[in-house]
Amino acid sequence: MVSPRSRRSVQESNLMPSRNWLWLAVVLCGCRGEAPLPDLFPPSVAGVWHRTALASPPLSSAPDPVPRTAVNRLQTATYEGPGKLEARAYELDSPAVALDLAQRWRPSADTVFFYRDRFFVVVKWDQAERKSLEAFVRELEARLGKPKGETT
After folding, report:
1. What pLDDT score was predicted for residue 3?
2. pLDDT of residue 27
3. According to the model, what pLDDT value does residue 145 have?
């Protein structure tokens, strides 16, 4: 007959490996770094736009009315081609924040915006050719992937 004390020791020793795995999982999740932003602003876009600058400025210098507490990262790029343009991509806390921004955004001259998942993108141009600008925006949208739920 096995004593209750030895039975408990066997149960505790069986649980020990799962506790170790749990702690290992917690430690590994805590060490995870930030996921990289998608390569949204390549050196050349749509064959005619060439990047002249790329930056990750502090959120405090963002010119757009975006809630700073909801922004994880901001990346900006300027391009030259058939005109000049500046693009800003905000990585937000959630897709809901991006949707809210898109619904409340006030249109302004020579500016277009769109959102995809957790990203909100603003493109402002100066004397750009319309077809080239449309191709630029289409390529940026494609780089962020298809909207969730779209099957084509």
Report:
1. 60
2. 43
3. 86
Shared-domain flag, residues 55 and 124: yes
DSSP class of 72: E
Domain of residue 80 covers: 44-143
Task: Kindly state whether residues 135 and 69 are assigned to the same domain.
Answer: yes
3-state secondary structure of 53: strand
In a domain, 151, yes or no: no
pLDDT, position 35: 54
50 and 104, same domain (yes or no): yes
Q: Is 144 helix (H, G, I), strand (E, B) or coil?
A: coil
Rg (Cα) of the chain, in Å, rounded?
24
One domain, residues 64 and 2: no
Sites in the chain below the pLDDT cut of 70: 1-37, 148-152
Q: Is residue 126 situated within a structural domain? A: yes
Per the structure, how many domains does the chain have? 2
Residue 24: its pLDDT value, please?
Answer: 44
